[in-house]
Design brief:
Layout: H1 2-7, E1 9-10, E2 13-16, E3 20-24, E4 33-36, E5 39-47, E6 50-55, E7 68-70, E8 76-79, E9 87-88, E10 104-107, H2 130-133, E11 143-148, H3 154-164, E12 169-177, H4 179-191, E13 198-204, H5 215-229, E14 233-239, H6 241-254, H7 268-276, E15 280-281, E16 287-295, H8 304-312, E17 315-322, E18 327-330, E19 336-337, H9 352-374, H10 381-398, H11 406-420, H12 423-426, H13 430-436
Parallel strand pairs: 9-13, 11-16, 11-17, 12-13, 12-14, 14-16
Antiparallel strand pairs: 1-7, 2-3, 3-6, 4-5, 4-7, 5-6, 8-10, 15-16, 17-18, 17-19
C-alpha cells in the first residue's frame, strides 16, 4: 500500500471551490480517500481524467500547487467488541480519551445485505414509550423516522429509547450535535449504566459540516459487524437526518450541481435510501433496526427531506406538544408503523390491536368534541367524557415520559375505558371484554 500511495502524487489542481478540489489524475475510484495539502479528502466524482475530491475540513488556504496523495482505498473503521461503551468521531477515532480500538478494518458505505438473505421482520423491539409500543409497535429490521419540530425534545426521546430498548447493541450516529447535546447523551448513558451495549459516532457543530456525511455509514458499518458477524439485535439511532441532508446540499451546491426541490441535490432519494436500506432482519437472528430523527421546517411535512424519507421508510413517529395535557406526545394520528401487525397479538397480548384501535378512535372522538366546543356547539355527555378521557389518555399512554411494559400499557387502557365509557362504546370484541374489562 505504501508504494502505491507514493506512486500516486499530484501537485497541480485544476479547480478549487469552497468544499472541493479537482485534479487531473488516473486510476482514481469513487469514495477513494486522499490527502490534499495535508487534509483528508474523498473522491466524489470522476469525469474522464478530472477527479473531484471533497475536502472534509474545507479548502480555505489550499494553493493550486497543493500536493494530492491518493490512498487507494475507501474510508475504513476497525470493528470489534472494543467499540462497546465508546465515543468516536466520523472517522471512527476515539473522542472520549480512551485508546484506539483494535479490530478488523472494514470499508464503510458498502452495499446493503443481499435481498435473498433477508427475512420478514417479526421480532418485537419494545422501547418502554407507550406512544410507540402501544400504537406504533416497532419490529426488528424496520426503518422508521421521528418527525419533529426543531424545538421538540427529540434527542431526549432518542436517549430514552437507547436506554430502554430490549436489544443487544445500540449505535448512535449524531450529526451536528451541539456540545450540550453531546454531553447530554454521554451523561445519560453513563448514569444509566448502559454504556456496555452503546456505541456512539458523533459529529458536533464544531466539526466540519461535511464530516456529517460519514456518520451514517460509519455507524451502520459497525452495526453490520454486530448483526451479521455476531448475530446480535442492533438498533441504530440517527439524529439529525435533516442536518445530514443539509450537508449533502452544501457539497452539491459547491460542486455547481443544479439543485432539485427545496435546494436539495437531485440524488437525495438515493442518498437516503442507501442509508435506510441497511435495515435488515437476517435468518441467523441478527438484525439492524434504524430509527432516525428528521427535524421539520415549520412543521412542513412536504419538504423534500421528510417527503423522500416517507417513500423509503416503513412509517413515521410524529412528535408534537399536546396543549390539553401539557406533555410532548407521540401523535396517534400522524404516526404509523407499517410493520406493527407483524408482532401485535403475536408477540404481544391477544387484546393489543383491539385496544390500540379503540384507544385512538375514542381519542379522535375527543378531537371532534373539541372542534364542536371551539365552534360554540353544545356538547353531549359522551363528548364531555371523551374530552376527559383524551387528557388522561395523552398523559398516561401517549406522552414520551411514560416508561412501562406493553402489558401495563394495555391494562392502563382498559382502566381508562372502564372509567369513561360503557363496554358497548368501546367497540371491543365481547370475548376480550369478558376477559380483561376492569370495573363493573
Amino acid at each position: 500500500m505504501a508504494n502505491r500511495v507514493y506512486q500516486r502524487i499530484y501537485t497541480k489542481l485544476e479547480a478549487i471551490t469552497k468544499a472541493t478540489v479537482s485534479v487531473r489524475a488516473t486510476g482514481a475510484s469513487n469514495d477513494e480517500l486522499a490527502v490534499v495539502a495535508g487534509r483528508l479528502a474523498q473522491v466524489v466524482r470522476t469525469k474522464g481524467d478530472i477527479v473531484t475530491l471533497q475536502v472534509f475540513s474545507g479548502t480555505e488556504g489550499i494553493p493550486t500547487d497543493a500536493e494530492v496523495i491518493f490512498m487507494g482505498e475507501p474510508p475504513v473503521i476497525k470493528v470489534g467488541d472494543q467499540l462497546s461503551g465508546r465515543f468516536f468521531n466520523a472517522y471512527g477515532k476515539p473522542i472520549d480519551g480512551g485508546p484506539e480500538p483494535e479490530g478488523e478494518a472494514r470499508e464503510i458505505g458498502g452495499p446493503s445485505v443481499n435481498p435473498y438473505k433477508r427475512r420478514q421482520p417479526s421480532q418485537l423491539i419494545p422501547t418502554g414509550i407507550a406512544g410507540i409500543d402501544l400504537n406504533n409497535t416497532i419490529v426488528s429490521g424496520q426503518k422508521i423516522p421521528f418527525f419533529a419540530d426543531p424545538d421538540q425534545p427529540y434527542n431526549q426521546v432518542i436517549a430514552d429509547v437507547a436506554m430502554r430498548a430490549d436489544v443487544d447493541k445500540i449505535i448512535l450516529g449524531g450529526m451536528g450535535l451541539s456540545n450540550d447535546d453531546y454531553l447530554f447523551f454521554r451523561k445519560s448513558f453513563e448514569s444509566a449504566g448502559a454504556l456496555d451495549k452503546i456505541i456512539c459516532f458523533v459529529n458536533t457543530t464544531e466539526d466540519p459540516t461535511v464530516e456529517r456525511l460519514l456518520i451514517p455509514d460509519t455507524a451502520l458499518t459497525a452495526a453490520e459487524y454486530f448483526a451479521v458477524d455476531k448475530n446480535e439485535k442492533v438498533l441504530v439511532l440517527l439524529t439529525d437526518m435533516t442536518l445530514y441532508c443539509d450537508a449533502l446540499s452544501i457539497v452539491s451546491n459547491r460542486m455547481d450541481q443544479i439543485p432539485s426541490k427545496d435546494s436539495m441535490p437531485g440524488s437525495l432519494y438515493s442518498d437516503l435510501a442507501k442509508i435506510y436500506e441497511k435495515a435488515v432482519q437476517l435468518p441467523s437472528g441478527g438484525s439492524i433496526t434504524i430509527i432516525a430523527v428528521t427535524t421539520l421546517n415549520d412543521g412542513d411535512i412536504t419538504h423534500a427531506i421528510p417527503d423522500n424519507t416517507g417513500y423509503i421508510t416503513e412509517g413515521q413517529l410524529f412528535l408534537r406538544a399536546d396543549a390539553d395535557s401539557g406533555k410532548v406526545i407521540i401523535d396517534p394520528f400522524r404516526s404509523l408503523s407499517r410493520l406493527k401487525q407483524n408482532v401485535q397479538n403475536k408477540k404481544t397480548r391477544e387484546d393489543h390491536s383491539q385496544i390500540m384501535n379503540a384507544g385512538v378512535r375514542l381519542y379522535a372522538d375527543a378531537q371532534n368534541a373539541k372542534t364542536k366546543l371551539e365552534n360554540g356547539f353544545d356538547l353531549s355527555d359522551y363528548d364531555h367524557r371523551c374530552l376527559a378521557y383524551a387528557k388522561e389518555y395523552a398523559t398516561k399512554l401517549l406522552a414520551i415520559d411514560v416508561n412501562i411494559s406493553i402489558d401495563e400499557m394495555l391494562d392502563t387502557a382498559w382502566s381508562l375505558f372502564a372509567k369513561y365509557f360503557s363496554k358497548a362504546e368501546t367497540g371491543i370484541k365481547q370475548a376480550l371484554i369478558d376477559k380483561y374489562w376492569k370495573g363493573n
